[in-house]
């Protein structure tokens, strides 16, 4: 029979238990049965069962002892809780009493109740200190309920502010374990914001004080450390750090606005930020300009050094420079031009670097400037861009380019100024894009807008004058080269062949027409690559007009026989084909008219009047028509002048 505690549950009969045990044992029954009575076996069963009962007793005893121990422990804990509650209540009662006594003592005359007042003050401070200590201990144990009770009691004591200070200090313990102080601050404030409403009756005040403490201590120390170490040693890194720290601080403040910090939290946070950065922001724009000036100068100098070029001083007062300026603006031969070996002294890489530095400066200016100073500061940065990009780089390249343009009578001249024009146009587009994208948003609503637009217009107009001068002198060089080709190849007798009958009707292209046309086509293509927009048509129109004038004047240097006139017509037809490359209606019209004029060299005398009245010639000046007819060798013999009298 298994021995279990359930066998001894009430009602329990010992005799019946023993009888049942004996009956269940084989050979142990007292009334006989299938087996004979066996006393030894019964004794053995009793001894075994007694042993089991002893083990059961020990097991039950251990369980009883365990339950008794647990009961004593719980009773002790309960007693402690009761004592704590009683003590807590006595604190509240004592606080109420001492608070009232303290108020009453303030009204008592000092000379009669000095001792009483001193004792009350001492007890007041002792109790206040005990309450703060109790609050501190409860905060460390994370006992929100106890913290709330003690804070409620301390609310009427002068030490309540100290209680808040202790809470704020302990909140920050272990909060800044990572390298990102801004992220740690955001997480800390989120955690405290959930708790502060459960502890204090004015959570917005406590939260505002916590944030103020963080800004005035932790963040200010972090900013000072980051900025002071680079302020004198690395101005570029200092400006980057200042921008980054200010940006992250304002972003943190934006996050903190989601908390209840009082009625005017935006002004509150703005003042905290200003207190941290005011000393740095006061000197920001001057440091920005100094850095930008130094950096831009270095970028330019590094470029000129890479070209082994020593910058020429411009705008001086020497006789040589005066000659150079006169030569640039006229076609007077005042000495040889400068040989730049095809170098334009314009670098897109330099331009991109200058614009990038300026763009960063505009971004920092937008973030770090006071709104009232932003337009003025942005304009000062723009002036530095104008100084280094437009004056020191582009304008200098234009001056050098103008100096390198050969005189109009130079032979086999290399005209690199069009390359300068092409690169200058590209740079102008980049400059204009930055003006619109990064400067305009900073000044668009201020009086500085007009000043900026005026400065930009002034700079561009000054450069356009030099570009126009250079293009004009380049076109003169092109025409001069054409003139040189014509003068070299053309002979006085080309249009008066000795044997009129044996001359094939063809142009003189084999001698000079083709070289001129090839040269013209090449220059037209160069102009197209160097210009953009309406400038292409404007320059090609001017080149086409000069090309036409050159051919017109060239043709007027010769006398023409009937066969020579046919040759001239063929030549002009070739020039007319070249004129089509210009894709300018005026140029095509001029060469069409010139072709019609050449017909006057071959038409029968009796038909001159009819030809002059034709569609293409009828509106021309009669003197011009007469001048062309005078080029005919039979002018006097046939008395052709009478047709114009």
UniProtKB/TrEMBL annotation:
GO terms for cellular component: exocyst. Residues 39-90 form the Exocyst complex component Sec10 N-terminal domain. Residues 43-70 form a coiled coil. It comes from the Eukaryota. Residues 93-643 form the Exocyst complex component Sec10-like alpha-helical bundle domain. The keyword Transport applies. Keywords: Coiled coil, Exocytosis, Transport. One of its GO terms (biological process) is Golgi to plasma membrane transport. The keyword Coiled coil applies. Belongs to the SEC10 family. This is Exocyst complex component 5. The lineage of its organism: Eukaryota, Metazoa, Chordata, Craniata, Vertebrata. The gene is EXOC5.
């Amino acid at each position: 029979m298994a021995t279990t505690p359930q066998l001894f549950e009430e009602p329990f009969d010992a005799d019946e238990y023993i009888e049942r045990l004996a009956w269940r044992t084989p050979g142990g029954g007292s009334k006989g049965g299938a087996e004979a009575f066996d006393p030894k076996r019964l004794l053995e069963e009793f001894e075994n069962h007694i042993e089991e009962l002893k083990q059961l007793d020990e097991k039950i005893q251990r369980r009883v002892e365990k339950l008794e121990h647990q009961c004593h422990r719980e009773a002790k804990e309960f007693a402690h809780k009761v004592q704590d509650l009683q003590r807590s209540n006595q604190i509240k009662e004592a606080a109420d009493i001492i608070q009232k006594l303290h108020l009453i003592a303030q009204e008592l005359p000092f000379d009669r109740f000095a001792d009483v007042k001193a004792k009350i003050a001492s007890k007041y401070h002792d109790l206040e200190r005990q309450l703060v200590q109790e609050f501190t201990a409860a905060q460390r144990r994370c006992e929100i309920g106890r913290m709330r009770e003690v804070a409620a009691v301390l609310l009427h004591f002068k030490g309540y502010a100290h209680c808040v200070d202790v809470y704020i200090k302990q909140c920050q313990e272990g909060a800044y374990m990572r390298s990102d102080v801004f992220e740690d601050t955001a997480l800390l404030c989120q955690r405290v914001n959930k708790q502060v409403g459960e502890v204090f009756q004015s959570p917005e005040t406590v939260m505002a004080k916590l944030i103020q403490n963080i800004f005035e201590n932790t963040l200010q120390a972090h900013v000072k450390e980051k900025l002071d170490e680079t302020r004198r040693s690395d101005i570029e890194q200092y400006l980057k750090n200042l921008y980054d720290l200010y940006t992250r601080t304002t972003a943190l403040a934006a996050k903190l606005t989601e908390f209840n910090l009082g009625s005017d939290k935006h002004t509150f946070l703005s003042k905290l930020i200003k207190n941290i950065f005011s000393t740095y922001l006061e000197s920001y724009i001057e440091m920005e300009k100094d850095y930008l000036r130094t950096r831009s100068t270095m970028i330019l100098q590094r470029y000129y050094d890479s070209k082994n070029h020593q910058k020429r001083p411009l705008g001086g007062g020497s006789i040589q420079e005066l000659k150079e300026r006169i030569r640039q603006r006229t076609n007077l031969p005042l000495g040889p031009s400068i040989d730049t070996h095809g170098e334009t002294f314009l670098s897109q890489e330099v331009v991109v670097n200058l614009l990038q530095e300026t763009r960063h400066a505009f971004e920092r200016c937008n973030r770090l400037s006071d709104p009232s100073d932003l337009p003025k500061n942005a304009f000062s940065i723009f002036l530095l861009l104008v100084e280094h990009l437009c004056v020191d780089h582009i304008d200098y390249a234009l001056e050098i380019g103008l100096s390198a343009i050969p005189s109009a009578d130079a032979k086999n001249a290399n005209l690199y100024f069009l390359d300068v024009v092409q690169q200058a146009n590209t740079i102008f587009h980049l400059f204009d894009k930055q003006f619109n994208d990064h400067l305009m948003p900073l000044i668009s609503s201020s009086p500085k807008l007009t000043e900026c637009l005026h400065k930009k217009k002034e700079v561009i107009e000054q450069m356009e004058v030099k570009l126009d001068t250079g293009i004009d002198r380049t076109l003169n060089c092109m025409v001069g080269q054409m003139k040189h080709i014509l003068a070299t190849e053309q002979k006085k007798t080309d249009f008066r062949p000795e044997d009129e009958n044996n001359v094939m009707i063809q142009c003189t292209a084999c001698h000079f027409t083709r070289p001129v046309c090839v040269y013209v086509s090449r220059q037209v293509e160069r102009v197209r690559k160097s210009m953009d927009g309406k400038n292409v048509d404007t320059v090609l129109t001017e080149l086409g007009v000069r090309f036409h004038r050159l051919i017109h004047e060239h043709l007027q240097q010769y006398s023409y026989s009937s066969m020579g006139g046919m040759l001239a017509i063929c030549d002009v037809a070739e020039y007319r084909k070249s004129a089509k490359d210009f894709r300018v209606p005026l140029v095509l019209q001029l060469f069409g008219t010139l072709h019609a004029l050449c017909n006057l060299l071959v038409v029968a005398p009796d038909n001159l009047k009819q030809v002059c009245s034709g569609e293409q010639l009828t509106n021309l000046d009669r003197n011009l028509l007469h001048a062309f007819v005078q080029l005919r060798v039979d002018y006097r013999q046939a008395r052709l002048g009478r047709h114009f009298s």
